[in-house]
Amino acid sequence: MKLTFYYIVLSLFSLQSFAQYSPEETSKDYIDYAYELLEKKEFDKALVKTDEIIALLPRSTAEIQYIRALSHHHLGFNTLALEEVNTMFQFSMSNELKMNGEELKMLLEDEINSDLSKDNSEETEYVMAEVSATYPGGMGEFFHWFHSSYTMKNTTTNGNTGKVFVEFIVNKYGKISNVSILKGVDKEVDKTVSDLLVKSPKWMVAQQNGKPVEQKIVLPFTIEY
User: Fold this and answer.
1) Where are the domains of the chain?
2) Domain named TonB C-terminal: which ranges (predicted)?
3) Whether pTM exceeds 0.70
4) Which residue has the higher pLDDT, 224 or 203?
5) What is the CATH T-level fold of the domain 2-117, as seen in this structure?
């Protein structure tokens, strides 16, 4: 009987411990952590954290919209970031946050207008574009093409295996160019990889603001040589 009473008291204490924090109080910790992720330049993780906060409340706030706008701005999605800044002004906020939001809005509008007014001959290489460059059928198909072509070009190996890290550009016409070996295994092997990549079938081009753009891509290739 005493043991049963003990478990009842313990259960009530546990429930009270969990209930003492409101969703708003818990979300404050999440928001602080999201700001830490911004400082670490982990912008994708900051966006995921804001999704968790919205699910917890469940609603957005001016501060959440501000964090999302900053994250998308640093990822190169200025149009989306501007929409989120405009949305933040629908919520109540401190004067300091309002000032920060207005400054960010001015910056985004200036950068968007600057991008639109750029000469078409002035190309920008994106690491992350609104629509990323993709190989028809997906990356699995691309690696299948590469390894099949590499095997046909090199019918004999010495039994060695290594990983070649390559950086290249998918230009706005869908072709691979500017191939650079970041970390190779052998000069001849590295050259074979570079020569092969520029012969890749056409990719689906990256897009920014609805226009085709160049995108920089880094990939590892496991090679037998």
Assistant:
1) 2-117, 125-224
2) 158-221
3) no
4) 203
5) 1.25.40
